[in-house]
Amino acid sequence: MRILVIGKEGQVARALAERAAAHGAVVTLIGRPLLDLADPSGIGDVLAEISGDVVVNAAAYTAVDQAETEPELAEAINGIGAGAVAGAAAAMNLPVVQISTDYVFDGAASRPYGEGDVPAPLGVYGKSKLLGEQAVAAATANHAILRTSWIYSPFGRNFVRTMLRLARERDEISVVADQVGAPTSAHDIADGVLTVCRNLLARPHERSLRGIFHMTAAGSASWAEFASEIFARSAQLGGPTARVLPVSTSDYPTPARRPANSRLDCAKIAAAHGVTLPDWHASLQPCISRLLTEPQS
Ligand SMILES: NC(=O)C1=CN([C@@H]2O[C@H](COP(=O)(O)OP(=O)(O)OC[C@H]3O[C@@H](n4cnc5c(N)ncnc54)[C@H](OP(=O)(O)O)[C@@H]3O)[C@@H](O)[C@H]2O)C=CC1
Ligand SMILES: Cc1cn([C@H]2C[C@H](O)[C@@H](COP(=O)(O)OP(=O)(O)O[C@H]3O[C@@H](C)C(=O)[C@@H](O)[C@H]3O)O2)c(=O)[nH]c1=O
């Protein structure tokens, strides 16, 4: 199985590269400057030059707050760019896997969101990702859109790395306690994506394998609970730790509004693809251990 991954330095892209061999897959990472999602005209030509069996778009404009002041760029990359990737995959008769987000929902529900719930993004990032979902679905029926949440890994920018950095600078950190979701390991996402890719290739005409799926870690937490667990694990491993001061969203103002309830119901992908990601607690320890022992990039 040869997988063309859009995204070179991103968390999910790098995790896909690391997990590929375990799934008998070969991954080619494609990113800037060769392929720029903000300039969709060249995407088809770039993909046509590299052989593959399936395309995974793991690249996106992910700066949630900054997106509020750069809506055109976020929508170009996450909306139009994602659609162009799917169009190029369709032209080559390849399935496409698009990674999307919990931030397409407004978080007002009091239960986990299902795939049939109507998205209503609160901010520019979520809106741009929803545009991407719609563009992918319009470009090809041969797609799987995987909505996940709160990704962390030893790479790039994520909440675990932010907390460990802040704990080296201060004794106490204020963290919102009224936004709840599922912290999800990029490596667990990579395992799920690779399984989905294999299923799409093995059963090219099966409609139940295609469409939108929710795919997060099992379990849930508030950002404050997540931070506390990060510091508990870090302390066990001799790493930095800090006191967590739980605060409300109104006490921690940010340019972009975020959903209070980010929980996603993952029953559909379990039934269709046989994918169930581990509980978030289980995958946190190996990530922190790696962060504390390996040189960082
Ligand atoms: N991070 C999270 O918590 C969540 C993310 N998601 C989604 O999962 C996917 C993967 O996210 P994650 O791995 O965290 O992403 P990262 O933020 O770690 O990396 C994003 C990647 O996208 C690339 N990129 C950004 N703009 C462009 C562009 N114009 N052209 C080509 N590549 C570009 C970046 O490239 P470069 O290195 O050149 O900057 C980078 O490699 C995304 O679709 C994201 O929306 C979903 C839920 C949660
Ligand atoms: C750094 C920090 C954040 N927070 C809050 C702000 C926010 O409500 C929450 C998370 O903040 P961050 O900016 O780290 O995370 P954020 O960029 O909102 O994370 C999101 O990224 C995009 C790409 C997604 O798709 C989402 O699933 C989600 O993972 O924690 C604190 O309360 N204290 C802090 O010290």
UniProtKB/TrEMBL annotation:
Co-factor remark: Binds 1 Mg(2+) ion per monomer.
The RmlD-like substrate binding domain, residue ranges: 1-291
Enzyme kind, highest EC tier: oxidoreductase
Reaction equations catalysed: dTDP-beta-L-rhamnose + NADP(+) = dTDP-4-dehydro-beta-L-rhamnose + NADPH + H(+)
Ranges in a coiled coil: none
Key words, A-Z: NADP, Oxidoreductase
Gene Ontology biological-process entries: dTDP-rhamnose biosynthetic process
Cofactor: Mg(2+)
Record EC number: 1.1.1.133
The protein's annotated pathway: Carbohydrate biosynthesis; dTDP-L-rhamnose biosynthesis
Protein's UniProt keywords contain NADP: yes
Pfam assignment, any one: RmlD_sub_bind
Gene3D superfamilies associated with the record: NAD(P)-binding Rossmann-like Domain, UDP-galactose 4-epimerase, domain 1
Family membership noted in the UniProt record: Belongs to the dTDP-4-dehydrorhamnose reductase family.
Reported function: Catalyzes the reduction of dTDP-6-deoxy-L-lyxo-4-hexulose to yield dTDP-L-rhamnose.
PANTHER family cross-referenced by the UniProt entry: DTDP-4-DEHYDRORHAMNOSE REDUCTASE, METHIONINE ADENOSYLTRANSFERASE 2 SUBUNIT BETA
Protein's recorded name: dTDP-4-dehydrorhamnose reductase
